[in-house]
Input
Amino acid sequence: MRMTVIGTGYLGATHAACMAELGHDVLGVDVDPGRIAKLESGEVPFFEPGLAEVLRRNIDLGRLTFTSSYEEAAAWGDVHFIAVGTPQKKGDLGADLRHVDAVVDHLVPRLGGDAVLFGKSTVPVGTSERLAERANALASGIDVEISWNPEFLREGYAVADTLHPDRVVLGVVPGGRAEQVAREVYGPLIEEGIPFLVTDRATAELVKVSANAFLATKISFINAVAEVCEAAGADVSALAEAIGHDPRIGRQFLNAGLGFGGGCLPKDIRAFMARAGELGADQALTFLREVDSVNMRRRGRIVDIARDACGSLLGARIAVLGAAFKPNSDDVRDSPALNVAGQLQLQGATVTVYDPKAADNSRRVFPTLDYASSAMDACEGADAVLVLTEWPEFVHLDPRAVAAVTRGRTVVDGRLCLDRQRWQTAGWEYRS
Ligand code: UDX
Output
């Protein structure tokens, strides 16, 4: 099948490459010509394991091309995926839908015939209905059907999650052709037995935000329990393991620590609350406010532990290991690690950050922090070492080698990822 994927960020670039991998002829579309030039030359503009290989293979096979022209996009065919960003509005909890609206505004007037538009971006419930009205007003003599097909991929596992998803969810209007088109698009996955769930559009939109709200709630639940564990001298990791054996609870997403960040969970729970408010159902989601505040409290708690370890933050030298919001990613959007680094610096500490992949992005957001080119360099002369993203290279650090270059002997494990005993045996005070 021929299809376009409009928006080539983490979501769109992955979707475009993976749809080509399924055998389709895909045109990736983005308004940023620099990004298009990179993708055309087989370069992924962000860190995502395995994506470059899929991208290059499909470019070489002639199944994947790119453009920044909406004329070309409209002429390419009658199936279009919308994969642009829906960030949090500035000064507001709601989602900024400007980019999604712009796709409809630019694409629809240029279409030469009937088309199906599949939205993949995470949007507030009601968006596809609103976009359908917008598209109808712009379409002359053609039928433009809007369907919602949320994406559940995780950064760091984007290719595997797209080619082997847990489920495909599709929100449609009755009597349309979107379902049939989607069954062809995802044919190879459906043959593999991956559940294909067809709902109305509002439900599909809500499936995505509910899934993310549930995951965020799970993380904040264990972090709230961690606060009690800390007060009571109990071990939250052992507790998570013990409750996680109950299949109704499950062990995944019960890792206590610095909490969630990234481009999805924080903004999605806020947009969900804002939308519920608009719909007059704000009371239903007030607990998400607490989910958000438990999460934000984690960051302050790590700063407190670091202050306690150093006596005072004024003049303290602190090594921050990790800047990405999670390992296997270079994404620093709403990164808890960088937020903590920034707070420490504001309170007078000299902070040196090291991250294996996210240093360039971090520098753009926090140019005033110092950046080292290795974990050991970051630790040089430090009074305390903070591990804030659980990259495997930090998990495998040799505590004796680190002790040979630091001034202090406190390690703060913000992700409960270090072998406590190993660090203690090497003479470290271990805090978490
Ligand atoms: C998330 C959803 O998992 C994905 O389905 C959706 O499509 C997009 O949002 P992502 O943002 O890539 O994916 O990251 P995820 O792996 O979910 O982690 C989110 C944050 O939660 C990270 O900051 C991570 O460190 C944190 N986290 C995760 C915890 O603090 N504890 C956990 O147990 C799990």
Notes: The first strand starts at residue 2 and ends at 6. The CA atoms of residues 100 and 321 lie 36 Å apart. The radius of gyration is 23 Å. Residues 204-432 form a domain with the Rossmann fold fold (CATH 3.40.50.720).
